[in-house]
């Protein structure tokens, strides 16, 4: 089915581990000039504030944790964080970043493929940053079922992702892809990989999540980010438990 694509996507993130933060920090080829960068950082700050108001407290599960750019936010609020990713390379960077951060909050690392991983405990909060857009459309429901299965009754979820594509070249590629959900990504050394990349409209996403039993609020920042938070409706929790 989409197994090869998902392998290539993971191979891309493994190979990109050491250069991943350049994108987030707008360095090197991701530097889009002072005005663009200023907006990016200010919109990230807006989402960090929203995450703070949401309050990722208690036992927190971070899916596709990457190099720890959001793990450092979660440890400010959580009693404990379990951080899952399939790439040992990013987990190593995450661990080093958290050590440098000198948090008191324990972080447990799990190396696992999210497309066949089942949580081994229940959490108060599930968080995922820049991951939903990499879940193939045919796996959308199963992914949200994974989130549901990881939560304690009354548990909550928060995600952040890209609002829309950043470059004209990527738009062209998405346009040419008949299914509209894959795109090409290049590493600093020129190697190219195909990955899944899906952009959601807030209203559509809210409706789809409502159909799956979630009460979610999905919002955007002015240019760059989509984020959302919510919980399962009571009936949906009952459906799971009985
Ligand atoms: C776009 S990055 C997001 C990282 C981090 N959440 C952030 O916002 O900086 C996607 C992450 O998903 C991980 N990943 C890719 N395929 C995966 C899979 N099948 N299972 C678990 N993690 C996977 C990659 O290793 C990478 O760290």
Instruction: Give a short account of the largest sheet.
Output: 7 strands, mixed
Record field, number of beta strands = 9
CATH homology superfamily: Vaccinia Virus protein VP39
Given helix and strand content, the structural type is alpha/beta
Specify the overall morphology: globular
The count of domains is 1
Supply the CATH class.
Answer: Alpha Beta
**What fraction of the residues are assigned to beta strands by DSSP?**
25-35%
What share of residues is helical?
40-55%
Any guess at the CATH architecture? 3-Layer(aba) Sandwich
Count, helices: 9
Secondary-structure map:
Blueprint: H1 3-16, H2 20-25, H3 34-54, E1 58-63, H4 71-74, E2 78-85, H5 88-101, E3 107-111, E4 123-129, H6 140-150, E5 151-162, H7 168-176, E6 182-186, E7 192-196, H8 202-211, E8 214-220, E9 225-232, H9 234-241
Parallel strand pairs: 1-2, 1-4, 2-3, 4-5
Antiparallel strand pairs: 5-9, 6-7, 8-9
The chain binds S-adenosylmethionine (SAM).
Could you characterize what this model shows?
The structure is a single chain. By secondary structure, the protein is of the alpha/beta class. The chain has a single domain, classed as Rossmann fold. It is built from 9 helices and 9 strands. The protein has helices at 3-16, 20-25, 34-54, 71-74, 88-101, 140-150, 168-176, 202-211, 234-241, and strands spanning 58-63, 78-85, 107-111, 123-129, 151-162, 182-186, 192-196, 214-220, 225-232. The strands form 2 sheets. Strands 3-2-1-4-5-9-8 form a 7-stranded mixed beta sheet, sandwiched between helices. Strands 6-7 form a two-stranded antiparallel sheet. Strand 1, helix 4 (71-74) and strand 2 form a beta-alpha-beta unit. The chain is globular and about 45 Å long. The mean pLDDT is 94. Bound molecules: S-adenosylmethionine. S-adenosylmethionine is lined by residues 6, 9-10, 13, 64-66, 69-70, 85-87, 90, 113-115, 129-131, 134.
